[in-house]
User: Which sequence fits this backbone?
């Protein structure tokens, strides 16, 4: 592991998690919990097996990741975040919130997975009507499925299909996530491919977490 050789907390942090893929390994373990090596690799499209192995070893040495042998029938190592690794959750949330401004263009070669669809509403929005009744929203983006459940003033998300959703949002990731995160409005989302079925009034309950005064609506391209 290289070091910047600076007596600065930012530099020291980057000594540990500044290498490519390191923070994305932490992201996957935060979203999924304990993972096998193959689960991590599948959740990180484009990473080479030897590079992932190296990053995991570095994160273990740094005390962010632990590895335990799982009992049969798994019979393989399970990687988990340590207390130090879990402490990166607010850092990743802040980084993800800052990064929303760069999500206005969906590149044709970008990979997209269901767990990324699920965490965004939970991390980047709040319920504007915390006393409102429970509601279930189905998200469909690039054939990936996730469910939002509004209840008890909180936004809960999970992977999969809802049996009887109150609202279905179906379209390209930038339309679904752009609408929920407040980067674009419903009209613009429809223009770039969003289909909405059910109770549209539920959309008013999604309040984006404040980012900054910079607005991104006009930057979204068809």
Assistant:
């Amino acid at each position: 592991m290289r070091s910047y050789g600076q007596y600065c907390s930012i530099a020291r942090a980057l000594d540990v998690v500044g290498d490519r893929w390191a923070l994305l390994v932490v992201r996957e373990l935060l979203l999924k919990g304990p993972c096998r090596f193959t689960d991590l690799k599948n959740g990180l499209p484009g990473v080479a097996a030897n590079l992932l192995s190296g990053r995991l070893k570095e994160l273990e040495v740094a005390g962010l990741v632990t590895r335990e042998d799982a009992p049969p029938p798994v019979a393989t190592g399970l990687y988990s975040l340590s207390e130090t690794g879990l402490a990166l959750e607010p850092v990743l949330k802040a980084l993800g919130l800052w990064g929303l401004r760069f999500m206005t263009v969906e590149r044709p070669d970008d990979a997209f997975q269901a767990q990324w669809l699920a965490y965004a509403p939970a991390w980047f929005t709040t319920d504007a009507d915390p006393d409102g009744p429970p509601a279930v929203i189905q998200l469909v983006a690039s054939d990936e499925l996730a469910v939002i459940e509004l209840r008890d003033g909180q936004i809960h998300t999970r992977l999969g299909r809802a049996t009887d959703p109150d609202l279905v949002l179906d379209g390209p990731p930038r339309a679904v996530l752009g609408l929920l995160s407040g980067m674009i409005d419903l009209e613009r989302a429809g223009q770039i491919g969003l289909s909405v079925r059910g109770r549209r009034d539920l959309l008013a309950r999604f309040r984006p977490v404040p980012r900054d005064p910079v607005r991104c609506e006009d930057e979204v391209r068809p």
About this structure: The chain has two domains: 9-87, 108-219. The domain at 108-219 is CATH 3.30.1050.10 (Nonspecific Lipid-transfer Protein; Chain A). Strands lie at 65-69, 77-81, 125-127, 135-141, 144-151, 154-159, 167-170, 195-198, 206-208.
